Amino acid sequence: MKNINYTGLIAGGGRFPVIVASEIQKHGNKLFVIGLKEGADPDIEKISEDFIWLSVGQLQKCIDILKEKNIKTLTMVGYVKHANIYSALKMDMRAMKLMGSLINKKADTILEAVVKEFKKDGIDFLPSHIYLKHLLAPKGLLTGKKLNSEENKDVEFGFDIAKSIAGLDIGQTVVVKGRSVLAVESIEGTDECIKRAYSLGGENAIVIKVAKPNQDFRFDVPVIGLKTIDTLKNNKIRAMAIEAGSTLILDKDEVIKKAKENDITIVAV
To answer: Is residue 241 within a helix (H) or strand (E), and if so which, with residue range?
Structure first.
């Protein structure tokens, strides 16, 4: 086993890891996956040449296994709910020491510390979109009706605010209507932010999702997919604006088709 040249992948929740795994294999690489028990899709185990389930808190075991497999670089994709840090998540001694050393528990702070911890053992993280750059949103109208002047003003208004909260590592999404902020994403995630906006402001709001200023693409890259379109549809959202060149559209053709069928505009700005 030690002589196999593996490409490493740490898989969190959502479709993102499954798509990345498939792309890695298209390049002819053997795939070793660590599936995080706190949300990884079981389907990823079926398509992996080698696989193990671990908990988020098993930091030392994760590093030991990667070293045993002689994996020097890997990709980390998929979400882990930030709320887990407030749960009864069991951590090994290395994870507890790491968490205790942090100045705060913002997502970027935690992830940057984790990356540095792996680096101590000679393991580097690659950009999470390295195999998926063809799925990055190009600038312009991707599907749906062109936004009118008032809607474009909402996008401009919301984009600046979204960039500001992203820079503070609060969230990367805002929902606006009539140049008023209905909801700001925080620890609950994008879907819950959109639901809250609908409960407060009703239909025809606009969602803006951006990358962080100086986005570190090794983790937390902005992603939308079919589930996103379902959330937009169920909450009667008029349009979604995403950041061109920095946002991944998973299942891109299906996403664009589904948005068009439901009269939802997607624009990359």
So the answer is: strand 239-242
DSSP, collapsed to helix, strand or coil, labels residue 155 as helix
The CATH superfamily holding the domain 134-268 is: LpxI C-terminal catalytic domain (3.40.140.80)
Q: Which residues of 173-208 are buried (b: 16+ CB within 10 A; e: fewer)?
A: bbbbbeeebbbbbeeeebbebbbbbbeebeeebbbb
187, amino acid identity: I
Residue 228's beta-bridge partner residues? Answer: none
Task: Give residue-wise pLDDT tens across range 9-38.
Answer: 999 988 899 999 998 888 888 899 999 998
* Over residues 100-104, mean pLDDT: 91
Q: Are 194 and 237 in contact (CB under 8 A)?
A: yes
Mean pLDDT for the chain overall:
91
Please give the model's pTM, rounded to 2 decimal places. Answer: 0.86
